[in-house]
Design brief:
The chain is mostly helical. It has a domain of 60 residues. It contains four helices and two strands; from the N terminus they run αββααα. Helix 2 crosses helix 4. It is globular. Keywords: Signal. This is DUF732 domain-containing protein.
Length: 129
């Protein structure tokens, strides 16, 4: 038989008490564990580009970029949206934006181009192209 010092016995007892069933064996195994955490995010800089996205995942607005509503590109985008609305049967901007954003090249465009398309769709929906 091996001899153990009192300190070794105490350490062994401490280690063993931490293993296994634990002291609170009457606690239910399905006790609720908090799942909510809170994180603080810094506010975006004033010149930051931010995207507003609907619950359906459609980008509906972009802030932090300029849109030149007098450009030929804006006029063409407005005309395209205006032509789409009668085919769709209404002037639902979000439906139009959803269709445009499903096009394969949409992710390749810049935030400025996205903002231009969104502004053009809103202008077309109001009949102001």
């Amino acid at each position: 038989m091996k001899k153990m010092t009192a300190a070794a016995v105490a350490l062994s007892a401490l280690v063993l008490s931490g293993c296994g069933g634990g002291a609170d064996t009457d606690a239910p195994h399905d006790a609720e564990v908090p799942t909510t955490t809170t994180a603080a995010f810094p506010s975006p800089a004033e010149d930051a580009i931010t995207y507003e996205v609907s619950a359906a995942g459609v980008t509906t607005a972009i802030t932090g970029v300029e849109v030149d509503t007098g450009s030929p590109v804006f006029a063409a985008a407005c005309d395209e949206a205006e032509a789409w609305f009668p085919v769709a049967g209404d002037r639902d901007v979000q439906a139009y934006l959803e269709a445009v954003q499903q096009e394969p090249d949409w992710p390749e465009h810049t935030p400025e181009r996205h903002a231009l398309v969104i502004a053009a769709a809103e202008t077309a929906a109001s009949g102001s192209c």
